[in-house]
Design the sequence.
């Protein structure tokens, strides 16, 4: 029984269980949508960063290779017994390696020659560099040109006297295919050019016949010889054949193929 003059009691009403469940379900849906949107943004950012890193690595790799080729062109003027650009084949799979002799100093200093090699090893494109040791047959050429360089001791192999420092350039590479441009011959596979090139100081001109089968032999009598490779194209000019262009094809592990043509002449 209510007393006279007292206020009526107002009964407070809270949320029901159904309302709480509905609110919780709405918050869960919003959280899922927000998480999916945030995950998509993070995934896009991750892919953009990966693509940027890959593009930067490719740019640096091709830029460095282009710089090495351009700096190898003046080495021909020294008329050395070894070629400024050469290819070698090694391993059971006959993988070609690009070997260069290039300038390593600026215009204000004496010319220093540097050995540079590009190879594919365990899915990584590597660049090796080191000081070039001149054989005794090239001492007169270096002395007359004013170029500076170390000399290998008598009876030593200049190619094995000094080791190379290898640095990884590009990863996730399945294959490295190279072709050299020879004047009046066109594009020839690097495996076919291996052993067919010699320095400008070699005056004997011959003819090298590249066979399309298995392994071949080196230069024969009078500069004639056979090489190995899949090109099946004769390399006329033999030991005097010069590479003036390079086609590089990089096959990535995901199947993508990247190709670039680089000029050797500056």
Sequence:
């Amino acid at each position: 029984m209510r007393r006279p003059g007292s206020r009526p009691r107002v009964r407070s009403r809270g949320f029901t269980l159904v309302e709480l469940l509905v609110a919780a379900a709405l918050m869960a849906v919003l959280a899922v949508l927000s998480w999916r949107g945030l995950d998509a943004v993070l995934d896009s950012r991750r892919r953009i960063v990966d693509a940027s890193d890959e593009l930067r690595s490719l740019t640096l790799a091709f830029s460095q290779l282009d710089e090495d080729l351009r700096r190898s062109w003046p080495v021909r003027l020294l008329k050395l017994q070894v070629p400024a650009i050469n290819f070698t084949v090694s391993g059971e799979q006959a993988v070609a390696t690009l070997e260069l002799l290039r300038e390593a100093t600026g215009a204000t200093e004496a010319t220093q020659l540097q050995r540079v090699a590009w190879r594919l090893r365990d899915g990584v494109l590597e660049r090796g560099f080191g000081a070039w040791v001149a054989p005794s047959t090239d001492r007169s050429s270096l002395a007359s040109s004013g170029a500076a360089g170390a000399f290998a001791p008598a009876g030593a192999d200049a190619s094995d006297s000094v080791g190379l420092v290898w640095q990884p350039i590009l990863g996730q590479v399945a294959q490295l295919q190279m072709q050299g441009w020879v004047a009046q011959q066109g594009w020839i596979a690097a495996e076919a050019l291996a052993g067919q090139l010699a320095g400008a100081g070699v005056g004997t001109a011959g003819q090298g016949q590249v066979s399309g089968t298995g392994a071949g032999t080196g230069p024969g009598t009078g500069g004639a010889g056979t090489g190995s490779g899949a090109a099946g194209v004769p390399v006329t000019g033999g030991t005097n054949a010069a590479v003036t262009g390079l086609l590089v094809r990089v096959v990535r592990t995901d199947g993508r193929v990247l190709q670039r043509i680089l000029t050797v002449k500056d």
Q: What stands out?
A: The helical segments are 17-72, 139-145, 158-161, 190-193. The first helix runs from residue 17 to 72. The chain has four helices and 14 strands. The CA atoms of residues 18 and 24 lie 10 Å apart.
